[in-house]
Amino acid sequence: MIKLLAVDMDGTCLDRKSRITDGTIRTLRDAAAAGITVVPATGRSMACIPHRLAAGTIRKNIAGYGKMSEDARDNQGLFRYVITSNGAKVTDIVEKRELFREMIPKEAALALLEQCRKIRLGVTSHMNNEYLLQGRILVLLGHLVYGRDAGAVRWVRDMSETVRTSGYEVEELQFYFMSLSARNEIRSVLAGFPELSAAYTRLYVEVFAAGASKGNALQALADHLGIRKEETACIGDGENDLPMFQAAGLKIAMGNAVPELKKAADIITGTNDCDGAAEAVRRYILCS
Questions:
Q1: Tens digit of each residue's pLDDT (9 = 90 or more) over 97-143
Q2: Are strands 170-177 and 204-209 parallel, antiparallel or unpaired?
Q3: What's one GO-annotated cellular component (predicted)?
Q4: Which of 22, 104, 143, 216 gets the most CB atoms within 10 Å of its CB?
Q5: C-beta separation of 282 from 262 below 8 A
Q6: Distance between CA 13 and CA 18 in Å, rounded?
Q7: Whole-structure pTM over 0.70, yes or no?
């Protein structure tokens, strides 16, 4: 019997237009009502948890997060624990405390940002649960792509200066490829940073501490809750979900998942445009 369910957000619970359907929300509610601990496991920062899921506890404790929507009010109690920034943090939003954290060393973050200055990249970061974007063009693109979920983003003029002067640690850095060669150039740079890990998508690379992963975060949460591996399930679509698959007993890949994840999966469900995550929860978890 599954007791802990970790679900990725983008590409899994959210469709290609970054929307989460009523059917998916209803199925996650059903899972929570059945006594399953439902955990969003995302590369996003806490402030950018999809607004239709974000519980009031999150919204009241993130500066500039805005008013709680009716959906968020309806979904209070849907989840208590959140894995954010690709496993840099596991947060108990009820007790307002972190159960797990693995931050990028500030010296490494500054050195990486300096070495990337000559590469055509868009630069963003997660710090203090916020999503920081260098340059107004990225802020505009963020609002166009993510809509209300991008309501808590914050513009900064220079990311290196922001990291250098901030009293907060870096949860994650993201670099968007602005040229055909940018992907290979930053891959070469990252080879010189063994203390960091990276997960690539078609458009950007996510960089986090070597000890941070959705897998390590999920394992830490399962240990905290006293839940065994065989009682844990996860659903994902991307390269950053591979470590989570190693920590879960039941591994479900989306129909739109990358080939590596499909190879590691026990089950392949429908795509994110066809409520594949909800289908898998109903067929393989709620009916078990």
A1: 999 999 999 999 999 999 999 999 999 999 999 989 997 777 676 66
A2: antiparallel
A3: cytosol
A4: 104
A5: no
A6: 9
A7: yes
